Structure formats: structure tokens, C-alpha cells
Amino acid sequence: MDLAQLSRNISQRFSISSLITFGFLLVLTITNLRQDSRIGKMEEKSQANRFISKKSLDDKPAPKPGPGSLYTRWGRTTCSPYSKLVYEGVAGGQYYSHTGGGSNLLCLPHDPIWANYTAQVVDGGWIHGTEYQLKPYLFNKLFSFANANALNDHNVPCAVCLTRQPVVVMMLPARTQCYAGWTAEYSGYLMSSHPGHKGRHEYVCVDHAPEADPAGYRDEDGALLYFVQAGCGSLPCPPYVNGRELTCVVCSKH
């Protein structure tokens, strides 16, 4: 092979190699461009989705506050300014001389709804109205009489109240003020059944300015409420004082 032929062969081989390399680079470039295009479209779609999602969240109304807490205001037919009335009624409980039956007081509504019932009295459980028993305090009045002219032997009204915001509620005995961070719903005196009676009732906080059910003034007994006094011994004195009537306050906290 002469020198001219060798030169032509090298030139042809070099051209073919260059074409192959160029073609490979062209394919690689096109592939990269397509990938970049797809990535760009995906990013645009993602941004659009994020915008739509954020807009949807912004358009949603603010969540409504949850329901409040229930408590019973004994001795009153209204609620504090921080709560709204669910219903008013009369305090009901077990007759003071009965040995059995319920031991708690209930706030019975004025508009009962009956289901199936018998036409005659049968042997079973009972619930009666509740009266204030204040004979020892006729001349040493602890209650305010702003809402009643007389209280002794009168029936005890009640109100079931719902706080206007979600809170926890507690009855705090032996205080007229709540601890820091708590709101007073109402305050009053601790009352319960007489220790000499057979029937027992829970301790309840009766408002300091109670009302009297106008229909219940005839001394018909039923469940009876007395002031509760501190008894020294196992109860430390001081800070408690023997024979002193205990106060109470119903407190709520957000």
C-alpha cells in the first residue's frame, strides 16, 4: 500500500469515528434536554399544587370552639355571665329518713317527659324535692337574701349551666375565691344532709344569694340541706375552726 492510499484510509476511519462520536453526543444531549423539560414541568405542577393547597387552607373557615363544660348551680335559676343556661329546675333527692335509695342530688327539670308507667304506686325507688333547713340561723343569717324574702323550709331551685368556652370545672370547698388562673362561676356555702338523719347526700355548693322555689314553702320535708361545719380532730385546726360553716366556690379554667 502506497502512502496516498494509507492517508485516505486514515482519513475515512477518522471521519467515521467522528460521526459516531458526534451522533452519540447528539443523542445524549437530546435525552438530557427531554429530562430537563420533564423535570421543569413536574416542578411547575408541584408549585401549582402547593399554591392550590395553600389557597384551600386559607379559604377554610376558622375552626369553631368545642363545647363547654356542664355544672349545676344549686339555689339559683340563672347562670354566671361566663355560662349559658341549659335548663332550670328543682333539686331532688332521697327522703331524709330513708335508709336506701340514691345518695346524690339531681336537678330535675320543670318539664318532665314520661314513657311507660303504672297507674298506681308500687314498691320501688323514690325521689323528693329538697328544702333549705335554716332554723338555727334565723337570727344569724349567713345567706344573702337579695333573691328571696325567706328560705327556711322552702324548696331549692337549681340551674344546669354550660360554659361558653371549653374549660374544666371544679367545686372548690372551704374557699370563696378560686386559685390563680381560674375563673369563679359562683360562690356560696357548702351544704349537705344532717349527720343524724338516715339518708345521706353529697356535699353541694349552694349559691351565697339563693332563690326559693315560690311553689315550695309548705315544710313538706324530702331531701334536706344543712350548712356544713368544720369538725376539728382529724381535720387540722388551724387553719380550720371547729364549728365554723364552710364556704365553697365553683371554678373554671380554659
> SS-based structural class?
alpha+beta
Please outline the major beta sheet: 10 strands, mixed
Give the beta-strand count.
Answer: 10
What global shape is seen? globular
- Report the uncertain regions: 50-58
Strand content: 25-35%
Order of helices and strands: HEEEEEEEEEE
State the helix count. 1
As a percent range, the share of helical residues equals 10-25%
What integer value in Å does the Rg equal?
A: 41 Å
The residue-averaged pLDDT reads: 80
Q: Span between N and C termini? A: 103 Å
Briefly say what this structure is.
Strands 1, 2, 3, 4, 5, 6, 7, 8, 9 and 10 form a 10-stranded mixed sheet that branches. The radius of gyration is 41 Å and the shape is globular. The protein has 254 residues and is an alpha+beta fold.
What secondary-structure arrangement, pairings included, does this model have?
Layout lengths: L2 H57 L10 E5 L8 E11 L12 E4 L18 E5 L24 E7 L4 E6 L9 E10 L11 E4 L15 E5 L19 E7 L1
InterPro entries: Ca-dependent_lectin
Protein name: Short-chain collagen C4-like
Keywords: Membrane, Transmembrane, Transmembrane helix
Provide an overview of this structure.
- Strands 1, 2, 3, 4, 5, 6, 7, 8, 9 and 10 form a ten-stranded mixed β-sheet that branches.
- The chain is globular and about 100 Å long.
- It has 254 residues and is an alpha+beta fold.
- It has one helix and ten strands.
- Keywords: Membrane, Transmembrane, Transmembrane helix.
- InterPro entries: Ca-dependent_lectin.
Jot down its keywords:
alpha+beta; 254 residues; 1 helix; ten-stranded mixed β-sheet
